[in-house]
Design brief:
The chain has 501 residues and is α/β, with parallel strands linked by helices. The chain folds into 3 domains: 3-278, Rossmann fold, CATH 3.40.50; 290-437, Isoleucyl-tRNA Synthetase, Domain 1 (Orthogonal Bundle), CATH 1.10.730; 449-500, no CATH class. The chain is 47% helix and 15% strand. It is built from 18 helices and 17 strands. The structure holds adenosine monophosphate and zinc ion. Residues 35, 37-38, 46-47, 49-50, 247-248, 250-251, 280-281, 287-289 line the site of adenosine monophosphate (AMP). The site of adenosine monophosphate has 16 residues, from helix 2 and strand 11.
Length: 501
């Protein structure tokens, strides 16, 4: 029996607003799409919360036996400065600002994004398509929508005709917007614009020859519409109908609403069975965003160099911090919360290191109660993860398991108090839940109490010899530590901190 049959997954579907049993179209295959970054600047911690949330969905579904094709795109053209589909191409604008070719901008921030994903242990998706690599598919989709009568061309741009679409289909169901009201309220403004209605959106946008980013099309040179990119790439790799589409809550409207309308407009049916939306990372209750100036970058976090940060935090502590809340709740940043997450992660990491090194000893006195407890806990991890990917509850179960592991480690309870199978189940489940499912890998630098204690002894010794003006010995301690990968940093106030390579 597959784990996914043993622990059936339920997902809160944004379409219905309810938790639903997950039944893939073609099990054991699962098609998963999540909107990737627009590579015109560095990703901030808010973006990473969303990418981490869907990384865990990908990891867990794979772990329980599904064959997941995970598509996460790179938006390298067509995302305009205004999300409503106006303004200029973000990449083009950034290229002018940095005096680079648009594709240099794209390369720079794509590499940066991949590097950050590697550091945070966010797995590469199965397919990472770029918008510029799929211009042909996008033009084909625009043609289909035009042929079906749900779009119109104006001055080389093609707009989706929301009013026309609504004569036959529903629009606004995902986000719960009342589009009738929007249509009523904006009628008089229409004459000033190319669009018939302000809710209409560009699926192909004409650009002037001064733009470097532009492609030929039946309607003249232009760029694809941002919403259309995801529709075209999702369809290409996952089919006209696929299982799960994810993204941040802020993308529900208009981005995802438009994706649905485009697929219905092109192929006559909705593209996605389950829509999942992860909630925002906030700072003092406000969405973290670059434009608000309350965002910080991963590298600022690791260096502790940002006015909002009291100190540096390790990537795994930050990942733990994100997983400590359910993806559908907002998560508020604070130094206290990050500090607590660091402690929490260290505890679990210590248990991870311990159980990896632990072997089963021969049976002493069988303890049926303990066997029962451990069996319950190992199942509970799967029940909590299958319950709408509840990482918060799963971490709570892992803490319980860590206590049992610590009892074994301290020798209070010999491993032989349980049968070999139960011990091996605890070991395998704890390691795979931590590393494979939650992506919380062993951080050799974050946790080793013994190592930390030893370095601190050496730091104190170095302070002492320096106070005694024995600089040769002080330098030797520093240099010898450096040679084995421990870097001491002298602070302004005489404090000494360290990092381990
Ligand atoms: P963008 O590169 O702007 O298209 O955003 C990439 C992803 O980050 C999208 O799925 C957004 O929903 C998500 N995102 C942006 N800001 C936040 C935030 N403060 N918290 C969580 N996710 C966010
Ligand atoms: Zn998208």
């Amino acid at each position: 029996m597959n784990l996914f049959e043993q622990y059936p997954v339920s997902i809160t579907n944004s379409l219905s607003g309810r938790k639903e049993l997950f039944t893939p179209i073609n099990p054991p295959f699962v098609g998963l799409y999540s909107c990737g970054p627009t590579v015109y600047n560095e990703v901030h911690l808010g973006n990473l919360r969303t990418f981490t949330a869907f990384d865990v969905v990908f990891r867990y579904l794979t772990h329980i036996g599904y064959k997941v094709r995970y598509v996460r795109n790179i938006t390298d053209a067509g995302h305009l400065t205004n999300d409503a589909g106006e303004g200029v191409d973000r990449i083009e604008e950034r290229a002018k600002l940095e005096r680079l070719e648009p594709m240099e901008v794209v390369q720079k921030y794509t590499y940066g994004f991949h590097e950050v994903c590697r550091i945070f242990n966010i797995l590469p998706p199965s397919v990472e398509p770029t918008a510029t690599g799929h211009i042909v598919e996008q033009i084909e989709m625009v043609k289909r929508i035009l042929n079906n009568g749900f779009a119109y061309e104006k001055n080389g741009s093609v707009y989706f005709d929301v009013r026309k679409f609504m004569e036959k289909h529903k629009y606004g169901e995902l986000s719960g917007r009342n589009i009738d009201d929007l249509l009523e309220g904006t009628r008089e403004l229409d004459a000033q614009e190319e669009k018939k209605n302000s809710v209409d959106f560009a699926i192909w946008k004409a650009v002037t020859p001064s733009h470097i980013q532009r492609w030929p099309s039946p309607w003249g040179d232009g760029i694809p519409g941002w919403h259309l990119e995801c529709s075209a790439m999702g369809t290409k790799y996952l089919g006209k109908e696929f299982d799960i589409h994810g993204g941040g809550m802020d993308l529900k409207f208009p981005h995802h609403e438009c994706e649905i309308a485009q697929s219905v407009g092109a192929y006559g049916h909705a593209p996605v069975r389950y829509w999942m939306h992860s909630n925002m990372l906030t700072v003092n209750g406000e969405k973290m965003s670059k434009s608000k100036g309350n965002s910080f970058l991963p590298r600022e976090l690791f260096a502790g160099e940002h006015p909002l940060l009291d100190k540096a935090y390790s990537p795994m502590s930050v990942r733990f911090f994100m997983l400590q809340s359910h993806y559908s709740s907002t998560l508020d940043f604070s130094n206290e919360a990050l500090g607590a997450a660091e402690k929490g992660y260290r505890k679990l990491n210590a248990a991870l290191v311990a159980i990896k090194a632990m072997d089963y000893s021969t049976v002493t006195t069988p303890n049926n109660e303990l066997v029962g407890e451990i069996t319950q806990l190992t199942g509970e991890c799967y029940r909590t993860m299958s319950d709408d990917f509840n990482t918060a509850k799963t971490l709570a179960v892992l803490f319980e398991m860590a206590s049992r592991i610590n009892d074994f480690k301290s020798g209070n309870t010999p491993t032989g108090s349980v049968d070999a199978l139960t011990f091996e189940k605890l070991k395998a489940t704890f390691i795979s839940m931590m590393e494979e499912v939650l992506g919380l890998v062993e951080d050799k630098t974050a946790n080793n109490d013994l190592l930390e204690g030893t370095i601190n002894v050496l730091i104190e010794l170095r302070k002492k010899v320096r106070a005694d003006r024995n600089y040769a010995l002080s330098d030797k301690i520093r240099d010898d530590l450096q040679a084995i990968g421990v870097q001491l940093k002298d602070g302004k106030g005489g404090e000494i901190s360290y990092t381990i390579e």
